[in-house]
Request: fold
Amino acid sequence: MHWYILGPGAIGTLWASLLLQAGHRVTLLQRQPDAKHQRIEIISSRGTSGIEPATEALSSEGPDIEHLLVTTKAQQTEAALAQIIPRLTPDAQVVLLQNGMGQHEAAARLLPSQLLWAATTTAGAWRESPTRLQLVSLGSTRIGPWGTNQMLQSDGWGALEIDLESTPDIKSVLWRKLAINCAINPLTALHHCRNSELLTDPARHERLRQVCHEVETVARALEIRLFDTPLAEQAEAVAQSTGNNLSSMLQDIRLHRPTEIEHITGFLCRQAEHLGLSVPVNQALLEQVRNLNVAKEFPPDE
Reply:
C-alpha cells in the first residue's frame, strides 16, 4: 500500500516512519523537495533510527493517489487539498490527522466521493531540523469515519506498532481533544509559559478553570459528552503530566508562524454564537492570540 503524506512536519514525519516500518510505501508531498529521497533521523529513548521516504513536489500533476494522510496545520487544509484533488482517485482514502475542528467539514465538501476519516493523537514529537525528529512519546491515536459508516481498512493502519483504536464516534473524541486544547494552548501562548506554569500561577489557573466552564456549557448545549469528571480536572492533569512541554501554539508564536487558534478557540466561539451562548473568556483569548499572530515582536525564549 502506498501512502502519500501531505504536511510532513513532526507528526507527518512520525507517521512516515511508522508506515515504513509496517512495510508500506511512503511519499512526502512537499512544496519544494530537496531531493527524491532524504534521510531523516528519528531520535527517541530507544535510540536513533533512520528513514528515507520518497519526496515529491506538491502538484496537481503526478501519479494517482489512493491513500492520503493530511497532517498540515488545520488552517492550511483546504488550500493544500485543492492542489492535489486532480490526483485523488474517486474512492481514495483520506485521513485528516490534525488539531482543531472545522476543517473536516471543508474537506468533506472538497471530496464528495472520497472516503474521509478523522484522527487525533496524543503522540509527542518535534522537528529539531529538517532531517532530525525528536520523538517524545507515541501516545495513543483514535480514528473514525467522517460522514460514512465504513471503517479504515485494517491492512492500512492495522499493522502500525502504536496504540490505535477505531471508533464510530470520532466527533466526540475530537471534541475532547479540542476542549483540552482550548484550556491549555491559548493561555500558554499568551503567557509564554510551559504547560505546568498554568497551574503554579493562581491567576492563570483560575482563567483555565473559567475557560473549561465555558467549553462545558457549549458542549452540553450540543449534547456532546466530554469526560466523566469535570473538564478542569482533565485539563489540569494534562498540564501537569506534560508540564515541561511547550504547546504547539506557543511554538508557532515563537517561530512567527500562524497559529491554529481559529480552529480551536475560534471554532468553539463560533459554535457558541450559533447557539446564542456567551463565552467571554474564550472570546477574549481568541482576540488576544489573533493579535499575537500579527505582532512583530515576541518575548525572548526562556
